[in-house]
Amino acid sequence: MNSSGSAGGGWRLPRHELAILAATVAVFVATGWLDPNHTYFANWAESRDIILRNTSLLGIIALGASVVIIAGGIDLSAGSMVAFSATTCALVLTLCAAPDDRRLVTVGPAGIAAAVGAAMLSGLLVGTLHTWLITAIRLPPFVATLATLVGLRSFARAMCLFVTKERWGSESQQINVNTPFFAWLKEHNVWIMTATFLALAIVTWLILSRTVLGRHLYALGGNEQAARLSGIRTDNVKWFAYCYGSLTAALAGIFLMADSSVAQPGNLARGYELNAIAAAVVGGCSLQGGVGTVPGTVLGALFLRLVIDAVSKLIKASADVYEGMIVGIIVALAVTLTQVGRRGQASRSFFSGARGVAAIPTIAIFAALLATMAAANVPALQGRIGLFGGVVGGITLIALAAIRLLEGRRAS
Amino acid sequence: MSVAPMTPGRLHVVLSMMAAIMLAGCSSERKPASPAAGTAAEKPAAAAAVKPRRFIFITNGDDPFWDALLSGLKDGEQRFGCAAAGITVARDVNNGSAEGQIERLRQYATQDDVAGIAISVIQADNQSIVEEMKKLRAKGVKLITVDGDVNRDTFRDARSYYIGTDNVVGGRTLGTATRALLEARGAKEGGYVQFAGFTDNDNARSRMNGVKETIGPAYMERDRMADEMDLPRARDNVRNATQNHKDLAALVGIWAYNAPAIADVVTESGTRDKYVIATFDAQDLAIGHMEKGRIDVMVVQNPFEMGVRTVRLLKAMVDDDKPVLDEMFPNAAGADGDVHTTGLRVVVPDSASPVKADLFDPQVVEYMTLPDFKAWLAKYNLTSS
Amino acid sequence: MTAIVAFRGVGKTFPGVVALDGVSFDLTPGECHALCGENGAGKSTLMKLLSGVIGDYVGEILVRGEPVRFRGTREAEAAGIAIIHQELNLVEQLSAAANIFLGRERRTAVGLLDDAAMEREAAKLLAELECPVDPRTPAGSLRVGDQQLLEIAKAVSLASDVLIMDEPTSALTDAEVARLDRVIARLRARGVTILYISHKMDEVFRLADRITVLRDGRVVTTVDRSATTPREVTGWMVGRDIAGHEFHGARSPGPTVLEIRDLTLPWPDHPRGYRLKDVSFELRAGEIVGVAGLMGAGRTELLETIFGATEPIWTGEILLDGRSVRFSHPAEACAAGIAMVTEDRKRLGLFPDLDVAANVSLCSLSEAVRGGLLSRSREEALVAAPLRETGVKTPGPHAAITGLSGGNQQKCIIGRWLLVKPRVLLLDDPTRGIDVGAKAELYALIDRLCREGLAVILTSSELPELLALADRILVLSEGRLTGEFPRATATEQKIMEAATGATNHARS
Description:
The complex is a heterotrimer of chains A (412), B (385) and C (508). Chain A has 412 residues and is an all-alpha fold.
């Protein structure tokens, strides 16, 4: 039941983590083999850099998200927090640079330290704001962080316009950051980010499984009322959780700003919060709170980014169109399978009752449409794409109906 | 751990198999993309001998403009014998952010079959995009910019060539036309607002500055409004502009989707008569609006032609085809020698428009009425330009 | 006469645990059949099989002579079998009527909800059950006893002829219990067969025709009520003779530890205006003060106020060792040496995702820290003592807490609080839902702790428990202290009179 969620567990990789690891390896091998370029095998070093960089970026945010989720909350604002932190950092750089330096190359070490410090401080402030909204105003975490999800980004844009207008005399919606330090950070960002991510993972793991605070986080997420009645200062524990969530996003914001050498509050890191939550959930965190591990989250982030990367390796044109679909299916599958394992419901029926019957043609229709679109790219099928889609849909229908019959027989 | 009947073995086998099957599905979808698409004249045998390669076109967003350009790419793919050389042309749609373009450039750097990349750069001054472009060039990938260039003063060496509209000239053309329309209405003074996705994107900035240059000092620029390529917001910007500035006389749409956004809002509020509406590009929606008299003038780029020439240029670069390169860039050594401009058109509803052909340099700008323009679109099976 | 329900060699195994093993017995139509057994004896599992919650077992169940295997409660309901769970299954936000008709809502001719018809029928059903609540009241705002009748009304409206009641009186006042008895009698008069699960002997012997005793998943015996005695049944349940819970030998209370003066806890937006009013008493070291009272009398509120778990809006004075204290958070009370075992174990006490050791060590984790980090070995050593002292039966310190029986879970929670070495222990109905054997062990534990000098305040809904354990018994009625009796003179009669406000024994 509480195999992967047990806080008391020492260093062990339970089944859930092993399953993600196995799936990761499977995706890796399958992609390397199916990709006509065999990029993963032939050109590993560059692929590795991309995957490490992206996994680290997502993972840093996902670690924060998992702490919040384990504590029984949710932080929807991570993507906006990334943009907010990047903007704060760039604006402090703007103020520390020479007045006419729009490329921010003239910032000294003190200015850089101030900018990084301000960015991290912005995380602390937002985390504190979340905690206040949740504990004092009693907003549900979903609502509080939804408010900052939309609010922070807008705030960052306004700040950007204000500061650039004041400093340069003309408004700018984005700030190019060509400061040598951040250029250096970008140059070495694969290793710096990976090291940061791993260090942060170890710290988070230590906090969660080896400190009193960590135990209190699990207790808070598992049963908030009982935690309070056990003398735990639950509001303080929440404060830590939301600050941790915002601080990791703020850290990611600095890296992302350095990596894209621009702070663009309008578009930077849009939707990252959902990827981070997905990574945590694939990694075994329960949105009900109280359950989740750091190794799981790390592997969840790796798996998610590898799948995204695999899609762009395998689909040679317009990969972005198919990316969301494939990632969505993979996330749903991963969580379904782990839940089947965890709850001991392997024998549960998937197609029982009227809903089950309705699901069969639904899935078949999707399969048929997908096959039709895929067939349009296959010359051998030209002129018969409708037929091909129909056949695939029909086969799906028959196969699912057969599963339904088997389930019915087993159950009776 | 002890409760579950599903063993660890079974679980991860299932998960891995599912993942493998899905990925297999993706890849089989793409495999046969090579020779058969070519014309009958080319020999499949020749294609079989060469390794399949790709030209990638990276857009900076999602818009019908790119669909017209894609039609040009496909046309060019056939016209310049790509199939015989084992080359396919693929489009990759960026999500509207700088990091999206950086990510895509990095991704292609790992893939050996990418022979050429054309990119519409989202931020002219972005160091990171430029660096990734340079890395690709260092690997031997042919790289050009199309439609949106890097900052040519500082990053000229990030790409070999630029194909596109001269956006400053485009802006000046629109400014000239707008001024003619305003003067014809007897508006001695007034304000105007320019709308674009990003006000500090290079192409938007060039066009806006061009407009400001030629519209004349009598008319005041009240604002430049950015919608970040969010369509509802593009409409809201127009609503806010018309409410905030009471002296507005002209609304200028800088990016393709701004045209229908302006026309929609003005129609909805019944204030069409108050404004001169001047826009860039010709989305099918915008064409419909002009037919109904809701847009006064469009300065139209030729994305179809950009697409055709993109393929021609990349193919010539891959083949090191000197005559073609010389033809496209006759004074390669000159200051603007790395820029190849595709033509601009001024489209007006009919010949009664105050915007007359003699306002423009016929060498640079082609003057067309809407019916002529639609006939041209029909010829190439296009719906927008 | 054929049995209406018959179990034939029914068995069910969970990984590592045999929950049921060859269970066979019959229910005769129209009888009230009591099923007794300690927690963990297999009663609940058996009920889950009969009501279709679990469909995967060996052996067979016959209903009216036909073998059945329900796949879900709906199929069981269709066969006329309804179950009233100990933890009620109501949608708190929906009205009483909506709950009764949930899933089979009455509709008007055009397919819209016919609330009027449902409310009419609900009112009729509830009136028959002596439950005069407005059917439009949200279920969540009804008293527990009324909520239970709501579930019974639902079963009645389903025309069920077999009604399973799982410890129905565990949260009822005596008046409500009497009402339930009448409802049961009325149902039986209609020919409804009742399977009554309980471990309260007085109820079993008051209501049942026959009694089946389960122990460790097996049937010990099925007997007619007239052929046995409560003591004998209890003996079968625990497998041994239970000694009466009398703790002889007077305790010798020490100095006053806690003093409550004129404690008043306001209750805004309520006609009464207060939850507690002018409550005063004192508690001495080595003394157990029992607090009696009906549901809603303010027992839990009194303990929570002392513990700092309510909003600090109370007036009056709480003196700990003569110093006035005012806790605004349980953490402060803990630090001052006050511990509280909460009433609703699952909702307020247990951490289902944490293992046994983590559940026990939670309040004193800092003692298991070495070099800033939690030490696993230190934690194990830390919890070993309380686990042993309270007699928790667990496969190991890292077993899942959810795998333990209710009694063992409760011992873990008491162990958690013993670790903080409190001077005052507040126990809010600590034996609720715990089987007989575990109760006796808990009583002995509480008595021992008290003799070691701990000051204890104990509330309970079972008067014999207070009479057995407490040195003095305070009685609360509607937030006021209406009686105080030393053990020597306290009787159930006197306490009930004070609790129901029949006579006023309040101190002057």
